[in-house]
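Input set for joint prediction.
Command: fold jointly, output tokens.
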Amino acid sequence: MFRYERWHRPSRDADETDRERLAALVLTRQRRIYVMLAVMAGVFAVLAWRLFYWQVLERDTVLAMRPLTRVQPAEQAPRGTIRDRNGYLLAIDTTRYNIGVSPNLISDPEALAAEIAPLIGRSEDELKTLLTRDDPYVRIASMAPYTVGHTLANMETPAFVIEPVILRSHPNGTLAAHVLGFVNLDRQGYGLERTFADWLEGSAIVCEPPTCRVVSDVVAEEVKLGPRVFMPTRDGVDLVLTIDRTIQFMAEQELQAAIELYGAESGTILVLDPKSGDVLAMANWPTYDPDNYANVPSERFINPAISEQYEPGSTFKVITVASALDAEAIAPDMVFNDTGAIEVGGRIIKNWDEKGRGIVNLRQILGYSLNTATAWINTQLGVERFLAYVDAFGFGKPTGIGMPEEAAGTVKRPGDGLWHPSDLGTNAFGQGIAVTPIQMVRAFAAVINGGNLVRPRLIRAVVDHGRILEFEPQVDGHPISPFTAHYMQTLLADAVELETRTALIDGYRIGGKTGTAQVPIPGGYHKEDTIASFIGYAPVDDPQFVILVKLDKPKGEFRWGSQSAAPTFQRLARRVLTYLNIPPDRLRLSRR
Amino acid sequence: MAHATAVKPQPERHRARRALWQERRSDYVLLLSVFMLLAIGLLMVYSATYSLGYYNFGDSMFYLKRQALWALVGLGAMTVAWRIDYRVWQRYTIPFMATTLFMLVVLLVLGRSRFGATRWLLNGSVQPSEFAKLTVILYIAHWASSKGERIRDVRVGLIPFAVLLGIICGLILLQPDFSTSLLIGTTAGIMFFVAGADLKQFLSGGAIAVTTLYVIATRAGYRSARLQAFRDPFAYADSVGYQISQTLIALASGGIFGQGLGTSRGDVGILPAGHTDVIFAILGQEMGLVAGLLVLGLFLFFGYRGYRIAATAPDGFGALLACGITTWILLQAAVNVAVVTNTVPFTGIPLPFISFGGSALVTALAGVGLLLSVSRSEAMDDDEASA
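tokens >
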């Protein structure tokens, strides 16, 4: 039936020798089978010992090696978020991944390349060359998004080296870029990110009255500082700014539109709450994208609203008039005979149109923006008193907004080598004195808010591990009396109606002052270039905001503040009034 | 017809012997150990893949279902092999061998490449080197038993054996699949030894083979990296030693009683190939040393029963076939566990009956069917078999 082991096949008359040999063969086989069983038993005993070794004897040693995860933890400490006054996010840490491979661990570069090419966004061929390079480590993607990093980490390939990188990102793009600033990969930066780096990285905050108030001392899971409830950062401090992202957006939009419309080079808009000093918006153009700072010239990172000095021009007349009134150098019902020119300190000062307007009162002086009259008022005030008021209004020194890059401005004084007696006359209408936009808007706020020189601020509160610390508004002095301030409040509203009709808003009474400053160049002033500005506030009886609009070098007739800055103010103020739910004066005042 | 090993043929008892043979009990104890291993395997595959399956396919049972299907196919193959008299296969060993060689060559020419190695045919569903294990065992059993005592002759035994084995192992090595080639070579060598090879020839041939394999092993780039990882896995834990260090951490975190079923995969993809080649580490992590020793014990018990079947087989072919299949399963299990415990350098080889994978499971179960078929036809009486 089965013909095998033919050589042994026993014949019917079996040969005894053959049988013995066959028996010996079978015996050898059986012996050797049991030898193999013994060998296998030995092997399995060794394996059992190895299991015991790893699972019992060496257990603790191995477990000590456990924090071996493929995605290494980031080395940088997480930074707290930056939020607007209502809790909306302005800047937050996000995780990105740098992805590398060890080519010697890749068994099939072609298949792997095909698989990950769409994820990484490189071509298959390009990836294949990278994956087959003879290097121990090859970077294939930098700053890949979170989802890509995790998808690759979940692919069961030991070849990937995935390092997380914490990246600062700004959900609103360029919004408030100059305020926020940015941090680079080494966590160095500009703006608030630099100024408050210690806080954002979680260092202890000293909170002592009266500047700071502990609102809540419990470690909260959720924080509510406005309409937006948010989760505080675990290991950092969250900054809550005074900026309102909506007003900031409106300001940036109007600024950009104005610059386009009037052909200006650059500009700044500041929106300040005159009562608390809260900066509601701080917009500059040109700006930059803090998520793509690498290709931006570094001078653009500087925040012009606090660091750029300019000659304020006629807007400064408000300060001169308020000071003279407060010092009782002039009476509120004063009149001045304007001949179109006046001599101060050996220099003839003329009006912008070189015309005289005869007998004028304060309202007309401000309304027609008469240089001659304000120069005369300043002579009534005198150098010493004038400079005392300039100091009291905070010019010539930083406002204390809390940014180290803030400029101080330049105020000339008798005896400093720069002062000329005629400067008393020119300073009166904002020439020969340099201020920053934040100084100007703050001094203006003091003129109309009852005479309190509030300290402008950008940080409203911080959330330190759920502990809410609120900062109190600070007042740095009272340059003028409330009585004078109250008079100025209506005087400026009366004046603006006289000639600057472009600033007026239907339904609301506003006050303000235009300014058209010539741009100083070596040896004098530029003939055409101006800085057109307007500072205004609304509503007049109860100012909710002060807006400074400053446009650099607008073209043609727009170089006059009344033609460019004033209408910009009007458009922005109208939107802010609506946004802040301020009813028109007719309704609001009748309700009282 | 008389058996080859029937040293004292007794024609008058022929009828009775045949009846007895049919009554002879299959080795149900061996079958039980296989079923236990299979059950542990399905449990571990599910435990190791529920999150992976959900993550990749939205079905946490995805891998379990596939493995269960393959187990059913394998049990079918096992039953067929069990019910057919194993001696039938003697006729087909040469065609089988030829087909296997042909498939291996075709694979080298056309096969799909996956993970850097060409091991699959027919769109990734058939892995010829798995079936090669079985056909090589069948062929060697047939060839060696037909030579009988003459196997001690170099010209009859060692040289043809070495040439044949060299061709098969070479083809598999070219895929490249070092571990399967090593496994087939070792199994064949042990069969050659059991078949009655001359010890001197066996040892010298073995020495040459070991030297060759050592040279090949240290040459390939990825293998030298694996050697580095073997010597100090934690020093290379973030690169070449990643898999083995993760495996050892998995084992260690299991301890004696384990940390519980389903707990090893807190995060998808921590342990690469956790459901295939290093499933034993998942077992060690989730059920501890106790379960690991149980599995080792079951394999050793399987080996005891398998070798017992070989020793009591009614003929040389049956003996060598049973010995070959048992050796193959045991060796594969031993290498797998040795890899997981870092006793040998890392190599990808599945744990029989337990690791996820279709071809391997079906082949192993078919091998069990052959073993059972041999056990069914034990020699009539003990004195005959041990004569």
